Amino acid sequence: MTKMYDFIAIGGGSGGFNAARVARGFSDSVAVIDGASELGGLCILRGCMPSKTLIYSAEVLHLAQNAKKFGLNIPSAKVDMPTLHQRKLDTIKEFTDYRVESMTSGKYDLYRSFAKFVDRNTIELADGTRLQGKKFIVSTGSSVSVPSIPGLDHSDIWTSDQVLDLDFLPESVIVLGGGVVACELAQFLNRVGSKVTQIQRSPHILKDQASDVSETVEKAFRDEGLTLYTDTKLSRIEKTDTGFTAHFAHEGKEKSASAAYLVNALGRAPNTSNLGLDLAGVELKPNGQIQTDEHQRTTNPDIYAAGDVCGPFEIVHTAVLQGEYAARHAFDKPSSVFGPINYDHMLDVVFTDPQVARVGLTQKTLDERGIDYIAADYPFDDHGKSILMEAKYGFVRLFGEKPTGRILGAEIVSKDAGELIHALSVAVSNNLTAADLLKTHWYHPTLAEIISYPLEDIVDELE
Ligand SMILES: Cc1cc2nc3c(=O)[nH]c(=O)nc-3n(C[C@H](O)[C@H](O)[C@H](O)COP(=O)(O)OP(=O)(O)OC[C@H]3O[C@@H](n4cnc5c(N)ncnc54)[C@H](O)[C@@H]3O)c2cc1C
User: Fold this and answer.
1) Are residues 406 and 281 part of one domain?
2) Ligand 1: does its nearest atom lie under 6 Å from the Cβ of 114?
3) Does residue 111 sit within a domain?
């Protein structure tokens, strides 16, 4: 007999796990299906948490290596890769154990298998078991994509997975790509002592950011000795006796770069194949992600989607919010707090150093929508706390609506920008004005108090 559930999550990562957790509050009949050999999902196992563990160590190392600037004598500071690797394993194990415990605690049925739809409300597991659901959520995540560049499919080419699991120091590495993952990993490798060459197709790394934001990070990278090529066209990858050579066009010339290792960080693609989505009536967007409405419903209203598999932003808190909201909607449990996600309040962070953090509407979107606004900024090389911290790269920029002064968006490039941006995230999500924020106490000397300077500019201009 086919077992029937009220709610089935296909994928137990950030989106699926949190959807099932919320669904369990409304029903005893919930199942999670995950086919991975290790439970935990991308964020915990091979994404946010391992990368940030390693990046933080590299930051500490960078500070120690620049001790002289701070009047300190640290004779030698270098990485100990086996120990760094072990620390990462230990840290990740703590997070994984907690997640596995939650998933195996018997709150819901857990099936360790891949699943595919065989019709609109039935899935089949690898062993042929069939399960029926009143509601489903598809949260199967994403995988590294391999664009069709000759040689890029060589089996020795690394992805972020291998970089995050390194227990030795690679002498030299080529990092292909200029997105978030590529930039974070390139700087990490460079800081721990690899000779890094980063090759990016667009005129700037972090191409979705404002150009002066990207330029600030590019300058920091080059100042640290990372070789960065932007505005390139990759023609082929060659496997050599000593590693890899990347051939590319740059500034009208054919160039090449060689290194012992090569990382494909050119992007990820949604995991939608072998899911039988067509049999379930679930359609895809032109970019290959699952199409959803604002309630996370796919084109089959009993099937929801969350996370990297549907986008539009492939980051964890979005996957979590989407999963939680989908479960509420599936059980018709509206909440005054958790509703459809307002992407005009979007928050994102890049963990380079300087970090890049952004919330709300970008200047490009404001211009496209014809919104009248004031942009005000202030540089960190003219700010007390950042000067004493030797953290002078970057700036804060705020966008205040005219004539209301409502903060519609902000971008920060700086040390710890990912922490600082949250003050502005509160403002953007709660329709606070520049005047509201200026009434707030800004402690001296902090990095955060820099936000009060462009706030003053906006208030002055509006008055
Ligand atoms: C190196 C790196 C660093 C990152 N850093 C950050 C960061 O700092 N901050 C941030 O917000 N985001 C970061 N991300 C992105 C973030 O990790 C993802 O957006 C997020 O984890 C996606 O969650 P998800 O639930 O969509 O997918 P996942 O967590 O990948 O979960 C999908 C699950 O579905 C399972 N599955 C797949 N197919 C099937 C099937 N057919 N049947 C059953 N199970 C299936 C998989 O086994 C997997 O467990 C990073 C990503 C990478 C690669």
Assistant:
1) no
2) yes
3) yes
- Confirm or reject: Cβ of 40 under 6 Å from ligand 1: no
Q: What is the domain extent for residue 417?
A: 343-462
Output the tens digit of pLDDT for each of the chain's 463 residues: 789 999 999 999 999 999 999 999 999 999 999 999 999 999 999 999 999 999 999 999 999 999 999 999 999 999 999 999 999 999 999 999 999 999 999 899 999 999 999 999 999 999 999 999 999 999 999 999 999 999 999 999 999 999 999 999 999 999 999 999 999 999 999 999 999 999 999 999 999 999 999 999 999 999 999 999 999 999 999 999 999 999 999 999 999 999 999 999 999 999 999 999 999 999 999 999 999 999 999 999 999 999 999 999 999 999 999 999 999 999 999 888 888 999 999 999 999 999 999 999 999 999 999 999 999 999 999 999 999 999 999 999 999 999 999 999 999 999 999 999 999 999 999 999 999 999 999 999 999 999 999 999 999 999 9
Closest CA to 393 of 406, 407, 379: 379
Atom 2 (ligand 1) nearest CA: 47
CA count, 13 A, side-chain hemisphere, 116 = 13
Q: Residue 357 maps to which CATH number? A: 3.30.390.30
Nearest-CA residue for ligand 1 atom 45 is 11
**Which residue's CA is minimally distant from atom 8 of ligand 1?**
48
DSSP summary character for residue 164: T
Q: Which of 229, 246, 266 is the last residue before a domain boundary?
A: 266
Residue 250: give its domain's CATH number: 3.50.50.60
From residue 98, alpha-carbon distances to 88, 179, 350 in Å are: 16, 30, 26
Distance from the CA of 54 to the center of ligand 1, in angstroms?
18
